[in-house]
């Protein structure tokens, strides 16, 4: 009798073990297998030779085309096609290893949100919707390097703190984004908000039309508008842009301008771009400027890119525009109205 019960007990224990193992094999993949965290980064280093009017200056730049950065992004499905999302991203100098913003680890992105078929919501430190990818997609130079007149003459807010963003789902060729930034403590301007940003674009075949607006408040307040049209003709892509901007205070910018450019793909790896940009001073002082540009890019591999760019910028009267990059402060003209010329050779490695 005792042996019979011992045998039954051993069988029951085996069944329980098999059930437990089966549960782990079935439940664990469903609950955790699709969650992911990705480490990524960009290292952008270039050598620039520029003459701001008083002589040629050679320097090493970081982030002239695509800001040097490293970060983490993650996604965890929670059902019905919806996932919890997050991104943490830091900017740094590949020339000397310093943080892009002293004392701030994640100066570019630090947000959490959710996304699904209904769109995407993000909360925290984020890119301005006008910055990436909007501005780079309406310019043959990707709104980067010293060759981009659009980048040199226009002004937007690149990063936004305390922001709430809604990215609408892609519908019949339309894409749109709305961002609102909450006021920081002690900022009594802005009617309860530190700023608002809106972008919308429409694509139909080879044609793309895009428009963006921003209004920020408080110190460094800026109202800006930007629009662009791109059209693809076989290996050639044409770009036409318009922009304006107005800040607060007597010395703040108050101007508008245009930029036209084209990119030609010689091969799938090699392309070249030419462009012209003009900015008009609306303050009544006629501090206008224009720029001629050229650029060449070669994709050595999926992760490695070489680029060469050049710009010739002509300031009028007391204008002080200069050649700069995405995360590069340009050399100031030697005197108000001085022309600025430069060339740049760089490489980008992605991981």
From TrEMBL:
Residues 24-317 form the Porin domain. GO terms for molecular function: porin activity. Its main location: membrane. The keyword Membrane applies. It is found in: Cell outer membrane. Keywords: Cell outer membrane, Ion transport, Membrane, Porin, Signal, Transmembrane, Transmembrane beta strand, Transport. GO terms for cellular component: cell outer membrane; pore complex. InterPro entries: Gram-neg_bact_OMP (IPR050298), Gram_neg_porin_domain (IPR033900), Porin_dom_sf (IPR023614), Porin_Neis (IPR002299). Residues 1-33 form the signal peptide. GO terms for biological process: monoatomic ion transport. It is a multi-pass membrane protein. Pfam families: Porin_4. Homotrimer. This is Porin. It comes from Paraburkholderia dinghuensis. The lineage of its organism: Bacteria, Pseudomonadati, Pseudomonadota, Betaproteobacteria, Burkholderiales.
């Amino acid at each position: 009798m005792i042996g019979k019960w011992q045998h039954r007990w051993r069988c029951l224990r085996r069944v329980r073990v098999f059930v437990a193992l089966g549960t782990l094999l079935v439940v664990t993949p469903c609950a955790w297998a699709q969650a992911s965290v990705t480490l990524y980064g960009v290292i952008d280093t270039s050598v620039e030779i520029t003459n701001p009017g008083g002589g040629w200056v050679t320097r090493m730049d970081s982030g002239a085309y695509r800001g040097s950065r490293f970060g983490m992004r993650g996604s965890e499905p929670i059902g019905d096609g919806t996932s919890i999302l997050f991104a943490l991203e830091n900017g740094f100098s590949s020339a000397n290893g310093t943080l892009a913003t002293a004392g701030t680890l994640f100066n570019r992105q630090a947000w959490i949100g959710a996304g699904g078929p209904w769109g995407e919501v993000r909360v925290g430190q984020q890119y301005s919707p006008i910055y990436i990818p909007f501005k780079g997609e309406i310019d043959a130079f990707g709104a980067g390097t010293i060759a981009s007149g659009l980048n040199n003459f226009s002004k937007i807010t690149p990063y936004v703190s305390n922001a709430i963003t809604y990215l609408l789902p892609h519908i019949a060729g339309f894409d749109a984004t709305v961002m609102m930034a909450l006021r920081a403590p002690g900022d009594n301007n802005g009617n309860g908000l530190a700023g608002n940003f809106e972008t919308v674009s429409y694509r139909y075949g080879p044609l793309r039309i895009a428009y963006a607006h921003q209004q920020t408040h408080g110190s460094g307040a800026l109202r800006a508008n930007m629009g662009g049209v791109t059209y693809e003709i076989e290996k050639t892509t044409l770009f036409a842009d318009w922009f304006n901007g107005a800040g607060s205070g007597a010395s703040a910018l108050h101007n508008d301008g245009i930029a036209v450019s084209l990119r030609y793909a010689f091969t799938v790896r090699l392309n070249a771009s030419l462009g012209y940009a003009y900015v008009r001073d609306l303050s009544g002082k006629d501090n206008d400027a224009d720029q001629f540009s050229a650029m060449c890019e070669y994709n050595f591999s999926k992760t490695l890119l070489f680029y060469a760019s050049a710009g010739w910028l002509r300031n009028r009267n007391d204008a002080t525009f200069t050649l700069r990059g995405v995360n590069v402060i340009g050399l100031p003209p030697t005197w108000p109205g001085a022309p600025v010329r430069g060339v740049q050779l760089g490489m980008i490695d992605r991981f």
